[in-house]
UniProtKB/TrEMBL annotation:
Keyword Transferase tagged: no
Protein's GO biological process: 'de novo' IMP biosynthetic process
Swiss-Prot/TrEMBL keywords: ATP-binding, Ligase, Nucleotide-binding, Purine biosynthesis
Leader sequence segment: none
Protein name, per record: Phosphoribosylaminoimidazole-succinocarboxamide synthase
EC number per UniProt: 6.3.2.6
GO CC aspect terms: cytoplasm
Record flagged with keyword Cell wall biogenesis/degradation: no
Amino acid sequence: METVVKTEFEDMKLIARGKVRDIYDFDDKMLIVTTDRLSAFDVILPNGVPGKGKILTEIALFWFEQTKGIVRNHIITADIDEMPAVCKKYRSVLEGRSMLVHKCKPFPVECVARGYITGSGWKDYQKTGAVCGIKLPAGLVDSERMPETLFTPATKAEVGDHDENISFDKMAEMIGMAKAQKLKNLTIKIYETARDIADKKGIIIADTKFEFGELDGEIILIDEVLTPDSSRFWFKDKYEPGKPQQSMDKQVVRNYLETLDWDKTAPGPVLPDEIVKNTAAIYRQITDILKG
């Protein structure tokens, strides 16, 4: 399978290139092309994962559909035949990995929902008894489900920089209290809805992050949603609180990178073929399970 790590179309205007997505301008709309680039610790790695962009697009579209009753999203179409004519010219690249979306004003924060204590949250709790400044009961163990879903916003870093956790009060200073409260409520509701859907299929969604924007004064869900790039998925039948879990997401890559003498700054190390293949297989597996 061909690996698409970068797109360039001579008659389409590129307006942004993120860690994974290339974005093209169509006046009041944008074309989001999800490449096979892979980032870890906020660094884009040199080699991509074949077909990853198509899998991410597939699973994001599934969740946009599942959550549209909670909040409107930015999707117009993922069908090349319904996109501007120039897109058809590049069908071989765009098919399955692109979405035409409404252009909106994004909020400058990532909205993180944490249902289980794990990763950096677990390290934080061990040191402080809190996660991102939110005090938790004593005696929780690694990977335990928390008494309630935590909302822990973060700033959106530029490519190559690290996202930084911020308090809810800081977020409210940035965007206003009413909007901050709305984003918190939406984040928790979307996460808990998805968590319950996934649970019935044998998958635990431990945590995830969302992005929102404003379109004509309305808050909408944008970017990606509940993908293996933005979420932590665990196998329910293998779940054992008290230790790290076997992940169905990008964790296989992070775990490998943690074994290296690498300072987590660019340039990142080249991934071995085995790690690339395992990552592709895990992304495919989670999508197939969720979609049934």
